[in-house]
Amino acid sequence: SRAEILVNFLPVGSLQATEFYMECALAARIGVVNCMPVFIASNPAWAKRFSDRRLPIVGDDIKAQVGATIVHRTLSNLFSQRGVKVERTYQLNTGGNTDFMNMLDRGRLQSKKESKTEAVQSALSERLADENILIGPSEYVPWQKDNKLCFLRMEGNLWGNVPMNIELRLSVEDSPNSAAVVMDAIRCCKVALERGEGGALIGPSAYFCKHP
User: Cα separation of 132 and 86, whole Å?
Assistant: First the structure.
């Protein structure tokens, strides 16, 4: 087919299937954009294998153009810049598409929750204890179909230890929400292929993905 780049959008929790396709990409000598939370680009062993073959990879777990995690990160960064001490936060997501149906199997969620949680933790000025941060898919609501709702709350203290909080509700169409970001990731991967660069592309991975 003369394909140059493999885009991985397998369901959350597809560890073995993702690793199978990564082996296929290495064998076929093509670049990869890993859009789901199985850690490949951020795994040093996998990254080295792509680097050794001079094949670029962008990953892991693509961000939406404007989604729950990027909004949460932006607010966390705002709090940090304005000197607000964050005490606790949550991000609860509901949806009715096959992605949310798949995530009813809680055994498939470990990497997804880690990816989303670390994306927010990294934007906070001080890391929160595990009991003070909850981020992840919450419930499958069939009639929502492809509409994804995010319910976000952050609590903190202003100067003088004065308490404050913010609550936000975000509604997006889930499936196309990462399309623009994936297109840019593919472009970066293509440029790297043309330059003969291999391994994890650190800049694009950090900007486009939740778990760089």
Answer: 10
Tell me which DSSP letter residue 11 carries: P
- Name the token pair of 42: 């951020």
Cα 107 from chain centroid (whole Å): 18
Written in H, E and C, the secondary structure of 20-61 is HHHHHHHHHCCEEEECCCCCCCCCHHHHHHHHHCCCEEECCC
pLDDT tens sequence across 148-181: 999 999 999 999 999 999 999 999 999 999 999 9
Output the pTM of the full model.
0.87
Contacts of 149 (CB under 8 A, 6+ apart): 93, 94, 95, 169, 170, 171
Residue 120 contacts residue 135 (beta carbons within 8 Å): yes
Average pLDDT, the chain: 95
Rounded CA-CA distance 91/70 in Å is 11
Q: Which of 13, 208, 14, 170 is nearest to 92 (CA)?
A: 170
pLDDT at residue 81 above 80? yes
The token duo for 203 is: 């800049």
**What pairing do the DSSP bridges indicate for beta strands 147-158 and 85-95?**
antiparallel
Q: What is the DSSP string of 94-138?
A: EE-SHHHHHTTSGGG-HHHHHHHHHHHHTTSSSPPPGGGEEEEEE
Phi-psi group of 56: left, alpha or beta (phi > 0 → left; psi -120 to 50 → alpha; rest → beta): beta
Compute the distance between CA of residue 30 and CA of residue 7 in angstroms, rounded to an integer: 10
76 sits in which H/E element: helix 68-81
